[in-house]
Amino acid sequence: MRERGPYVIQPEMATPIIVNETDGAKYTYFDRVFLSTDGQNYRLMGGFRSLMLTTSVEVRNGRNHGSKDTVWAEIY
Questions:
Q1: d(Cα 51, Cα 38) in Å, to the nearest integer?
Q2: Which of 33, 58, 60, 76 could join 47 via S-S bond, C-beta 3.0 to 4.6 A?
């Protein structure tokens, strides 16, 4: 841990479910947003939204972290 420096540990949280009204497909998603700071000010560096079908093996196993089934969208 000393080699990496300070960082934040966060618990796994339940992800929301959204439904595609066109075909009824259900997706779960999460957003990752990255900020920088100089100790006084914060700056948005960007981020991404990750969507996965709730029927995917990864989601059913609680691993919504990105795979070949992930749909990515940039946050800027």
A1: 32
A2: 33
Domain that holds residue 39: 17-75
Q: What is the pTM of this model?
A: 0.64
Structural domains in the chain (count): 1
Per-residue tokens: 70: 């992930």
Record the tokens describing residue 10, joined without a space.
């966060």
- Do 36 and 45 form a contact (C-beta atoms < 8 A)? yes
Output the tens digit of pLDDT for each of the chain's 76 residues: 467 677 777 777 788 999 999 999 999 998 889 999 998 999 999 999 999 999 998 888 877 777 888 889 898 8
